[in-house]
Design goal:
Distance between the termini: 56 Å
Largest sheet: 2 strands, antiparallel
Shape: elongated
Order of helices and strands: HHHHEEHHHH
Number of helices: 8
Radius of gyration: 23 Å
Strand content: under 5%
C-alpha cells in the first residue's frame, strides 16, 4: 500500500475513539457468540427430541444418532472458540492502536500493535476455512480490495498502517462475514425454538378445555417478546460492518465524523441486544 499526503489526513486521536468503540464491540460480540451457541445447541436438542419421539429406533440407533449430533455441536463449539480467540486478539490490538495514536506517544506501542497485527493475521487461514451453515467464511474475501493509507503527523502510526492496515482490514472482513452467517442461523434457531415453545406453553393449553396454567400469561409474554426481539440480532453484523468501514475510512485519512458516529451507534445497538436477549431468557417460565 502506498503512503500519500494530503490535507484530508485523519487526526491520529480519532483512532483512540475508534479503538474504544472496537473494544466495546469485542466485549458485546463475545456475549453474542455465547448466546448464538446456546441457541444452536437448544435447536439441535429440539430436533433430537422430535426424532426420539417420532421414530421407532433401537437403543443402538439412538446412541449413534446422539453421538453424531454431539460431534456436530462440538465442531460448532470449536468454531466459536476460534472466533472468541480472534476477538481477544482484536481487543488487544485496539488497545495497542489507541496507545500508538495517542498524542502522548506511549513507548513500545508501535511494536506491540505490529506484533498483534501479525498474530491476528496468522488466524486468517483457519478462520477463512471455516464454514457456518454450509457457507465458507473466506468467500467474502473476494469482495475485499486494497486501499492507500493516508498521511499522519504521527510517523509511527503512519508506518504501522502502511505495513499492517491490509492485514487488519482482511480480518475485519472475515469478522463481518462470520457474524452475518451466525446471525442468519441464530434467527432461524430462535424462531424454531420459539414456535415449539409457543405450541407447548401457549397454543395447546389455550385450545384445551382445561383451565389455563398459572404461568400461561408469563409464557405468552415471553414468547411474544422473543419474537419481537430476535430480528435485532442483525445488530451484530451491522456493528462488525461499521467497524470495518470506520477502520478503512480512518486509515485512508478520512475526516468524516459520521464514520465514528455510525460505529458507536451500531456498537450500542449490539450491546443493547445482548443485554435484552439475556434478560428475556431469564424471564422464561
Amino acid at each position: 500500500m502506498a503512503l500519500w499526503s494530503g490535507c484530508g489526513a485523519a487526526r491520529p486521536g480519532r483512532f483512540e475513539a475508534f479503538a474504544a468503540a472496537g473494544t466495546t464491540y469485542t466485549q458485546a460480540r463475545g456475549e453474542f457468540l455465547r448466546q448464538s451457541l446456546e441457541l444452536y445447541i437448544d435447536r439441535d436438542s429440539l430436533e433430537l427430541r422430535k426424532q426420539h419421539a417420532a421414530t421407532n429406533l433401537t437403543t443402538e440407533s439412538r446412541q449413534q444418532l446422539l453421538t453424531a449430533q454431539d460431534k456436530i455441536v462440538l465442531e460448532r463449539m470449536r468454531i466459536v472458540q476460534d472466533l472468541e480467540h480472534h476477538g481477544d486478539i482484536l481487543r488487544l490490538y485496539f488497545a495497542a492502536l489507541a496507545q500508538l495514536s495517542s498524542a502522548k506517544g506511549v513507548a513500545g506501542a508501535e511494536g506491540a500493535a505490529s506484533r498483534l497485527a501479525s498474530e491476528i493475521g496468522k488466524l486468517s487461514t483457519n478462520l477463512a476455512a471455516q464454514s457456518i451453515g454450509g457457507a465458507p467464511v473466506g468467500a467474502i474475501l473476494s469482495r475485499a480490495s486494497g486501499f492507500a493509507v493516508g498521511a499522519f503527523r504521527n510517523r509511527a502510526l503512519a508506518r504501522h498502517l502502511q505495513e499492517n492496515a491490509a492485514i487488519i482490514d482482511r480480518e475485519l472482513w472475515l469478522e463481518e462475514e462470520a457474524l452475518r452467517l451466525l446471525v442468519e442461523e441464530m434467527i432461524a434457531d430462535r424462531n424454531a425454538l420459539r414456535n415449539e415453545d409457543r405450541r407447548v406453553t401457549v397454543t395447546v393449553p389455550y385450545r384445551s378445555d382445561s383451565p389455563l396454567p398459572a404461568d400461561w400469561d408469563k409464557a405468552r409474554r415471553a414468547n411474544l417478546m422473543a419474537e419481537a426481539g430476535i430480528a435485532k440480532a442483525q445488530s451484530a453484523q451491522e456493528a462488525a460492518r461499521q467497524l470495518r468501514l470506520a477502520f478503512e475510512a480512518l486509515s485512508k485519512g478520512g475526516n468524516e465524523s459520521g464514520d465514528l458516529t455510525a460505529l458507536q451507534s451500531a456498537v450500542d445497538a449490539l450491546s443493547r441486544f445482548v443485554a435484552n436477549f439475556a434478560q428475556a431468557q431469564s424471564r422464561k417460565p
